[in-house]
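Re: adenosine-5'-triphosphate structure - here you go.
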Amino acid sequence: MFRGIIDLKSLWLIGAIFIILLILPPIIPRFYTYILTLIFVTALLAMSLNLCVGYGGMFQFHHGVFYGVGAYTVALMLTKTSLPVWVGFIAGPIVAAAVGLLIGWFCVRLTRLYFGMLQISLGSLIWAIAFRWYTLTGGDDGIHGIPMPSLLSSLNSSYYFILIILVICLIVLYLIVKSPFGRTLQAIRDNPERCEAVGVNVRRHQLITIVIATFFAGIAGVLFVVLEHSVFPDLMFWVLSLEAFIMCLLGGWFTFAGPVLGAAIMISLRTFVGIYTEYWTLILGIVLILLIFFLPEGVMGYFLEKFKPRAKEVVERSSELNVAG
Amino acid sequence: MLQVEAVDKSFGDFMAVNRANLTVGKGELVAVIGPNGAGKTTLFNLITGQLKPDRGRITFKEEDISGLPPYHICKKGVARSFQIVNIFPRLTVFENVQVAVLSQQKRSSNLFRPAQNLAVEETNSILEDVALSDKIMDIAGSLSHGDQKILEIAIALGNEPELLVLDEPTAGMSPEETFATMGLIKKLASTRGLTILFCEHDMEVVFSFAQSIMVMHQGRTLIQGKPEEVRRNKEVQEAYLGD
Ligand SMILES: Nc1ncnc2c1ncn2[C@@H]1O[C@H](COP(=O)(O)OP(=O)(O)OP(=O)(O)O)[C@@H](O)[C@H]1O
Ligand SMILES: [Mg+2]
């Protein structure tokens, strides 16, 4: 299945990182285990977003909504019904993907910025529902103390569970990106008009991409509940969507693993800078501006470019060109 | 094979294509000529679905294709290239053509097989035919203008069309490149059994390659006929070849 799509050197590197992550929890302070887990969850959110943004060239501006929908779905099912836990876990991504299908169906009819603007409006609508429908969602307070099976009750066990799910999701996403579907998606990103002229139903392809991406965002939402045992409307607020978008740009949206790096940087920033200041959105804005001017290909893109001869296979796309379409 | 009957297209008040007619027979090499702004590109966009006609009928192999979306028309066997280079700039040359071949093989939505091992032979054979084999791993956006125009044609070939529509395939090329490219197109037409509809500004090229010529002027069809007939036509001489 992987023949020819991953080289040995990257495989070794990934294996080494994975093993280090496996042995870390018992030897690092609890707080760092928590931060790492939060990074895993957020990395999945950013990776799913990058399928739309980096690979599909779509302005998926309000991806956080689908993360929130996944989280709220599992939270409501675990607190308001007596269905088994795993049903909730599966329902999270499915409901997120269904909402993705609904919102996406309207969005793919528009182009570029209009796509993004419509998504912000429709997404904010869902946020407003979560915020206002007090009896169901707990409104501003959210839902807390969501019961988890005993297998997932300790921080370390959630850490391992979330890490394993993340790895599986990344493998699946990698296969998708390397498949004919993924290649066609990149062609659509480069030039939708031409892609339609070679027989691709561009809107349908984009819609399927959104459904896949929102499905994975839903998984990330479920993982968030596994970690935090709570949900709140901020999960669907536009600031989180902006953060996820910046993670893609920051890490390198034309590289596969860039968003993971972006998530790690952003979560660290938010944790270690955010606590000293209320001006988190201001910091976000500054990061975004610096990025656009100094690192248009993101951190990962920058380093892959710099060490090109060594990392040739890993570079998804050359940055020699400035023509985007 | 292709019939365009009294087709209109206007942008606001402006009639870009006005009761245009065109016939392309199987295996023919047909040229559309006309001064800048005559409506050639608009006509091609109507044929391949980028634009929808206001009135009139376009049939391909006796089937009405007017107003169908581009991907649908492509699936019926009509592929095209564009006047202004229209490729996938961030993909490699190989991937540019492969995307079309995958679409032709109905594999564009295949999710779980590495694309890298699919449609390789077909893609390579096309790139060999157009002499881009030595650049398959180059990023398309970094090719020279001439090579990008050739890649345009190669992408269109990926769909294994019966009718190939080429909008100024040699735009921006030097005279030598132009003749080489037209030679290539003629060769492709015979080896791959293609019917070709193209437009071109260089009269020398048009009159030496085309079997049938349609002259457009201000959106209207002045005449369609063999090169000699067109050259003799008074109206054409006045309107276009006048000088
Ligand atoms: N999308 C559009 N909106 C408005 N006007 C348009 C549009 N597309 C083309 N036109 C106008 O229609 C006329 C015909 O344009 P078209 O591109 O078809 O000409 P052409 O024969 O291909 O010219 P050229 O030889 O310069 O390529 C021009 O006057 C152009 O300005
Ligand atoms: Mg034109």
